[in-house]
Amino acid sequence: MTDRRLWSYKEIAAHIRVQPDTVRSYRKHGHLPDPDLVESGKPYWFADTVRAWVARRPGHRGRREEVD
Description:
By secondary structure, this protein is of the alpha+beta class. The chain has one domain (6-56). Helices cover 40% and strands 15% of the residues. It has helices at 9-16, 20-28, 47-56, and strands at 6-7, 37-39, 42-46. The chain has a three-stranded antiparallel beta sheet. A hairpin with a 2-residue loop joins strand 2 and strand 3. It is globular and about 30 Å long. The protein starts with 5 loop residues before the first strand and ends in a 12-residue tail after the last helix. InterPro entries: DNA-bd_dom_put_sf.
């Protein structure tokens, strides 16, 4: 099943256990995938996009990272 919920910086940050500003920095430096949607200038990513990115991140080492 596909998870098409949209996540902002806040949800991504909670998922990987960092501050939202850290996620913004990742995007600024090209370490975050392009947003799936930009609405009113705000970027959003599908939860599945984020999970795939997390799985490819260096140092991930199979850690389970979840968001409610």
